[in-house]
Design a protein that fits this description.
The protein is α/β, with parallel strands linked by helices. It has 14 helices and 12 strands. About 50% of the residues are buried.
Length: about 400
């Protein structure tokens, strides 16, 4: 598609902003309250530097690693994100792009495509769920994911008790009926390319959550109904996490860990991996950037479980910084959505290629032959950068 090429993730975001209706773009931008945590997720990476070599860099560099039992060609995995209203193929296009670049995808239980469809597009699919409903209902959804072939389970427990944001929260309609379409008509008329893409696909955005149905044959609840049930379900305790990890019996990632004491509790609960994350700044504003809390957590539990980083990654150099501070790999959420909005599957592949190229350049510059060779000594870390939350030892 003409005009769809971009050389940075920031350029992809700018193109996405120009092509998406404002309500859709703002829903993806997210960030709670004043956006302090959202900005710190990005800005904290700029405080970290590298000490480059002038000669003797390795001629070949490897990015291959394993995440949740799956070998991936680069240390970047697609993070689970909600309804993909930016493109008719949604998570299926993202899954195909990830498969084409040799990596895995996390599929949100609030996603717009079913786990069965996404698994068919990428066998390296991890299924993510929120604590919604009773234990019986949760277990039925887990068994559905297992039957579909999901390679790992991701449980997210850090969303959402935020109450909007200072720059406005776009309204989410219960469905795209005539009244909703009329209300959004001015935005849609200003984005003919977006509308045309959906018309050519013969459909309209479906604001439903098919993966919150207990069975594939069951009607999908609307996003709003599913969110209402989620908000009415009491949050899980550590006994619930331990129960679910035992029920799953395979690779199990707890997403949203910011504190050292929570990381230790997660290990005690039997998880096999944790994601150091603040939900992309879309939760409790004022939480430090995820990268600031990474090293203390990795030092505390990295020898017992896999540690991933989620939040603020926009460049290959960001990936290298996270790995040097103890992450096995990073999860990316918004970046692939910008690529998807610009050019579907090919746009997501462009994003992954940009990150892969940036990782390779950083490895060469600091003289590391493999992502497994990275240590904090490869970085310039300013005093006071790390935040050891909840560390009483």
């Amino acid at each position: 598609m003409a005009g769809s090429a971009f050389e940075t993730v920031a350029a992809a975001q700018l193109l996405a902003q120009r092509r998406l209706p404002s309500a859709v773009y703002l829903a993806l931008l997210a960030g709670s309250e004043r956006g302090q945590t959202y900005r710190d997720n990005l800005d904290a990476f700029t405080e970290l530097g590298f000490a480059p070599l002038v000669a003797g860099q390795p001629a070949r560099r490897s990015q291959v690693t394993t995440v949740l039992g799956q070998e991936v060609a680069l240390p970047v995995v697609i993070s689970p994100t909600g309804v993909h209203a930016v493109h008719p193929e949604g998570e299926v296009a993202v899954a195909r792009a990830a498969a084409a670049r040799g990596t895995a995808i996390g599929l949100s239980s609030f996603g717009s495509k079913s786990v069965e469809e996404v698994m068919a597009a990428n066998p390296q699919t991890f299924f993510q769920l929120y604590w919604v409903g009773t234990r019986d209902a949760i277990l039925e959804r887990v068994e559905r994911a297992r039957s579909a072939g999901a390679k790992a389970l991701i449980v997210t427990t850090d969303w959402s008790f935020s109450k909007g944001r200072d720059w406005g929260t776009p309204p989410v309609p219960a469905g795209l009926d005539l009244a909703a379409l009329t209300r959004f008509a001015p935005q849609l008329l200003r984005r003919p390319r977006y509308v045309g893409r959906w018309l050519r696909a013969g459909t309209i955005p479906q604001l439903t959550a098919p993966n919150l149905a207990r069975h594939a044959s069951e009607p999908a609840p609307t996003f709003l109904d599913a969110y209402t049930e989620f908000m009415q379900t009491p949050p899980p305790g550590w006994d619930d996490i331990a129960w679910l990890a035992g029920q799953w019996g395979g690779p199990f990632l707890l997403k949203g860990v910011c504190r050292v004491d929570d990381a230790r509790r997660a290990v005690d609960a039997g998880v096999s991996a944790i994601s150091v994350s603040n939900h992309g700044g879309n939760n409790l504003d004022g939480t430090p950037a995820a990268i600031r809390t990474l090293r203390p957590i990795a030092d505390a539990v990295g020898h017992q479980v896999e540690v991933l980083l989620d939040g603020g990654v926009r460049r290959g150099s960001d990936v290298v910084k996270a790995l040097a501070l103890g992450a096995r790999a990073v999860l990316i959420g918004r970046a692939p959505l910008w690529g998807l909005a610009v050019n579907g599957q090919a746009g997501v592949e462009q994003v992954l290629d940009i990150l892969r190229g940036g990782v390779d350049s950083a490895l060469m510059g600091i003289g590391a032959a493999s992502v497994h060779d990275l240590t904090p000594e490869h970085l310039v870390i300013p005093p006071g950068f790390h935040r050891a939350l909840g560390d009483s030892r």
